Amino acid sequence: MAGTEIEIDNQVFIECRDFLVSGKKFQLFPLVGFEILKTIPVPQNLASYYESENYISHTDSSKGITNRIYQLVKKYMLDQKLNWIEALKSPGKLLEVGAGTGDFIFNAKKRGWQVSGVEPNKSARNLAILKDLDLKNEISKFDGEKFDVICFWHVLEHITDLEEEISRLKGLLNKNGILVIAVPNFKSYDAKYYREFWAAYDFPRHLWHFSQNGIKKLCSQFDFDLINTKPLIFDAYYVILLSEKNKTGSSNPVKAFFCGWKSNQQAMKTSEYSSLVYFFQK
């Protein structure tokens, strides 16, 4: 990491396949000294692995039970996420990296934030235009600017170079600015239960996989202080719906509900939720 060469352990943690696009198999290897896993190999044509009508964050689709649940939960969480942020910062300049179709920053704009967004996917950017949002295709377009809050909602796991990205984010934040990172947790109950079928591994779109200790240690290398952590309890239910489909071919919503409930109950004791949001201060 920062000042430290990234070293990959040669022991495979798990092998999974891409259930969304290609069906190809990928492996996870631990980083030496970090509770972080890396996807190997990383395809050269990685962008093509996002080209699916079933990749929900790049659409506003409500077709099918899984998408309907996703959209309902997303609508509820838009306000919840902003409530968490506004408990730490008054509305100012906010940048979302990986903005998808722009729903989060659209909501933030209505609540008085001056918003900007980055989204590499052209189809998602076009949907954001319908919400009167001009998303940029890469973060370098904001070099030289400063923000009070930068959000990575389930995006850091997609980044090719972690060191370069976090260093850039630090440079874009104002003094005492807040970096918000939401990522899946491979130490959660549902990750251990579904193993190679766990949808949040999402090979090869997810290049990195984090534990709580891993994300904390990573950001501490760049002098970020962790000031709060929040669970994303609905993520367990959504991820389990997809995981069950990966495993059996059917989403099985009844089983997904009970398994999601069990995952969250376990996490109340262990803090190992399916996904967590970390709030770091510069």
In short:
The protein is α/β, with parallel strands linked by helices. It contains eight helices and ten strands.
Would you give an account of this structure?
This protein has 282 residues and is an alpha/beta fold. The protein has a single domain (14-281), classed as Vaccinia Virus protein VP39 (Rossmann fold, 3-Layer(aba) Sandwich). It is 35% helix and 22% strand. Strands 5-4-6-7-10-9 form a six-stranded mixed β-sheet, with helices on both faces. Strands 1-2-3-8 form a four-stranded antiparallel β-sheet. Helix 1 (65-86) packs antiparallel against helix 7. The longest helix has 22 residues, at 65-86.
Number of helices: 8
Instruction: Sketch the topology as an H/E string, one letter per element.
Output: EEEHEHEHEHEHEHEHHE
What proportion strand?
A: 15-25%
The major sheet is characterized as: 6 strands, mixed
Strand order of the largest sheet: 5-4-6-7-10-9
Please estimate the helix content. Answer: 25-40%
Q: Ends: how far apart? A: 17 Å
Low-confidence stretches: none
Structural class: alpha/beta
Secondary-structure arrangement, i.e. CATH architecture: 3-Layer(aba) Sandwich
CA-atom Rg in angstroms: 18 Å
* Number of self-contained structural domains: 1
Q: Do you know the CATH topology? A: Rossmann fold
Total beta strands: 10
CATH superfamily: Vaccinia Virus protein VP39
In the CATH scheme, the class would be Alpha Beta
**Overall 3D shape:** globular
Q: For the residues shown, what is the average pLDDT?
A: 89
